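Aim 2 progress. For NlpC/P60 domain-containing protein, the working sequence is reproduced below.
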Amino acid sequence: MRGRWRRVRKRYRFVSSDGRPQRGWLKEGNRTYYLDKGGFRVTGLVRLGRKYYFFRKNGVQRFGYIKIGKKTYFFDPADHGARSSTVIVVRGVPNTAPMSEPPEDLVTARNTALNLQFDESGAFYDNRGYQIQKATLRSFLTTALLPVGKTMYIWGGGWESGAEKKSHKGSIEATTIGVSPRWEQFFRKSPRSYNYKNFRYLSHLGLDCSGYVGWVLYNTFNSVSGHGDYVMLAQNMARTFAGWGWGNYSPAGSYSDFRPGDIMSLRGGHVYIVLGQCSDGSVVLVHSSPKGVMITGTVTRRGKKNSQAVKLAARYMKKYFPRWYRKFPDSSRGTSYLTDYSRMRWTLNGNRSVLSDPDGLEGMNASQVLSLLLGPA
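Predicted structure tokens for this construct:
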């Protein structure tokens, strides 16, 4: 809208080019204001209709967690910044700082304490004592693709608000069956210039890398919401899941092959799921990484940027997730994804396995896996 701000007795009024004061919502670039009947910008907690909104002292609308008095409220960007009806007590934030991998005896002790184990019949129980439903590698990867192209990267997304270092917990969304409608709503409102640093810890709006993998695992092994969760530090996931007996662990640098379903953890704090490897050694993967949950491809080990995986990932994102691809077309990742990650490879047969592979995905390349899961490129 054309016009200018005019200062009147320490307050600011927006006047249009014809000299008339404006009313209602005003958008200037990335800033949103609300103008009262006199055209002045409002500040603080304001009721508009049946909803409450919050504006800074300079009139710019605020989103996210805001402390008002002794209570903290959530002002939801997916609902135009309206205040959620729930009062949120924020004790802290998820600890996502890099940590060293836990030793095997610590993993074993933690599993025993949480009763994460197989019983004599081969049934596996989560950290709340529920028996999980065993699944297939195909269902695991199909589930991993559900949030693709509609879920933004949120630092702390998938973590419970106030989760502390000693008691990591997944958010409600991380233990809920299905893709949260809020995730796609927030994606549709997010611009091409989206910067996750402006939305840290708004955990209901999207997923970070570990929140994403935790959500995938929960939705793979459960048919009802509210059981145990699988959210933990990204760098610990591969080794921890292997310690639970789900598969075999390989430290970074000790392997050169990748198979569909491999869970890959970076000591510096990232995790991804392998969709398949190409004949040139590059890998197609799915993960939550700025800008969000998407299929990407690595370069080759020699650094060739136009690798088979990069081209394949771009084709599939463009064809099957066009709205996302138009905003965020970058589908390439570097050599560190091939060299710096530890690996958990699923045990796919035997009594003590949580995944099976009747479809034979383990022996497929990236192109074959994507064709099976999504369709032709």
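The chain has a mean pLDDT of 84. This observation will guide construct design in the next reporting period.
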